Amino acid sequence: MARAAEPRENTADGEDPDSAAGADGTALELLVHGVGGTTPEKMLDDPRTVRITGDGTAAVFRRIDDADAESRPGDHRGKPVPEAYVWCNLTSGNGSRALWLLLLPFMVVNLAHWMRPTTHGRRRTVRLYGLLVRLTGLTLTVLLVAAACEVALDLTAWQCAGTRACAEDHSWLGFLSPDVSGGGWWSQPGRRLALASLVPAALTGLLWYLSHRTWSTYESHEPLHRTPGTEEEAEHTALSRPGFWYGRRLVARLRAAHTAAGFLTIAAAVGTSAARHDRGPGGPALLEVLGWLLNTTLVAGAAVTVWVVCRRGRTEHRLDRELDRALVRRLPMASVAVWVLALLYAGWSRPEWHSERRLPGDMTFGGIVLVQSLLVVALGVVAHTLYRSRPHARTAMRGLAGPAVAMLACALGGVMSGGVAQRVADWLNGTGDTAVLGPPVLLTWQASVIPPLLIVVVLLVAWLTRRTTVLRRREMPAVEREYGLAARSHKPGRPRNADGAGGKDTPAPSDDDPERRDRARTRRIARTRALAALTDRAPRIVGVVCAAALLLGVGALLGATTTGKTPGAAARGTHPFVEGAADTAQALGSWLIGLGFLLFVTWGRRAYKDASARRTIGILWDVGTFWPRAAHPFAPPCYAERAVPDLTWRMETWTRATGGRLVLSGHSQGSVLAAAAAWQLSPSVRKRIALLTYGSPLERLYGRWFPAHFGPHALGSLHREVDCWRNLYRLTDPIGGPVRLPGDHGPQVDAEPFRDPLAYGRTRAHPLPAPILGHSEYQADPAFARERRRLLDRIGPEVPGQRGTG
């Protein structure tokens, strides 16, 4: 079937579409690197490279000798012209990336949105799933701001500044203390709270700023303008929809709502404390009325904020350039106005008001934990309903991955909140003579459940260790067969036991015995394969940890609510073993959560100064920020909303202008970007693209954890719509794996596993021991060039090649 005529365009390099490049069939290999990043010099294996298109953040590079390859097609007959798309600066650039550590819970809850199970129809249930995740994200914002209020307002301004000993130990708080300053203007509790509220307000403003700036820097690039040919094509997967990689409208709405939620939380922490005092006996009637008006305004603002979050989800079927400007501007400004009114109300002179004990934070944190638990349970019910409509055995946790990850996000938020509160309380207490009461009881209970959770983790590690040992033993015969060692495993005159060791009358081999060295080599290869196979058991680990975290969290909430005391105090008078266990859990949990906070701050500081540490954090963002911000606007930015349009524009313009062949070659996370870009191409161009993936997590990670977008139905449609696709992997690779398409499609896509290492022992080709490569250096294998050549032979400059059967 002849290719349809395409409109004439100029190439990015100024070539004419009727140049000899199209006639002679110039081939292009567009390389996309994986996690951790690299340099164009390493990707192209040449120290001399030139940027073809792009900027300092993401760009396409070529070798200097290939810069004008389209004008010299005869120089590249039989081999493709390599191009490298480098996108690592999107996730591991300057030192400001260290601030993204603060956004870790937001990133995790955003992942839960995309883990929706595959379903057919049930649009209302799908929308309900997204709504529940967005509400869970909103509770995380409230939790983080409430933790900042706990530190600044309760621990510092209320408890420490209101205690003479603590204020004297921390001289910078002296002007806030009535005992130290002699009753200065700032010494009244309401004014202290109003001043301290600047800290959580600054945090909320920082989150808004990061979200706004990162959107302008990373995600404001519009994708290629196109219209789906048919409704059926658009429904193969949401990744093929025109507006999937442009979520400006939703992010702006959510940013406004979460910013408003942050300022309303601060206003509630300041204003309700003063209103509670004014409702007491002898309070002025005017202030009591103002307190009720403030509380009513807070409730109305919270209702509007929740309505904005619930009102609209993502728009993917079209490129939505609209922006709800009135809402985006007015809602945050209105919340700031409510906060200012709360400051003025709390700052009213109340000479008879004195700070006693702690602010009622238990009710606030208890309410947040209760709402989060109910949302996670409801999300689990909805996810299970969706999974039952279209079950698949490879789906992670039988469709409950999204609720489990949402629970993990809530747990991370709780640990961060409790960690900073506990650490600041310990710091303010100093030697213990300052009489600061400490954080709310619920945070102490949450810290106390960390040791039991660690016991669960230790048991899981022990199970994984045993499982790895079993898998290693099973893999050893397979390794021997693969390298032709089975015939050497038994020699005449050397009787063997069932475990392969020599008989009881056979002397043990010496250290220079070749068979002993062979067994050690076999053991190393088998152990590497066994460790790589543990990736497939990640759903079980996450499921057990999240279930334990949910149960322990509910237990902590019940314990704090029913007793009103810390675990150690609640256990007084019971069995000595129970008392000891409670005291140990409380002390150890407090120490661990404080240590975790210190490690968190230390690592963030190191990442700010050290580029290598920043690259390590960048690997985490490479995996976690592939998806657009659909559930939380304060999550780190989605680099794919820049990378996918970059790749799509490059492939569309080059193929239309030259008529040449193109192999889209993606390694690791780069293969995910390549698949997403291929889905965004117009059908006529997609049919002229060959896809080569290696070390790819498309099915092993993305297909299992994100089945609605990378499940068998979606990957099968990609195989049908691109001209040809080949997937390469190794058994020693812990990330990449086969695509596992059903039926006869699987052998067409998945090649036989690459041998790793290339040689078992020393050979003429490998006089030194060949390394076990695992996830890296796929191109070093001679089979890689053969597979790439096969793809080039199957596609032509004008007529798509016929599919093979193997």
TrEMBL record:
It comes from the Bacteria. Residues 1-25, 483-520 are annotated as: Disordered. Keywords: Membrane, Transmembrane, Transmembrane helix. Residues 1-11 have a biased composition (Basic and acidic residues). The chain crosses the membrane at residues 128-148, 193-210, 256-277, 289-310, 331-348, 368-387, 399-421, 441-464, 541-564, 584-604. Coiled coil: none annotated. This is Integral membrane protein. It comes from Streptomyces poonensis.
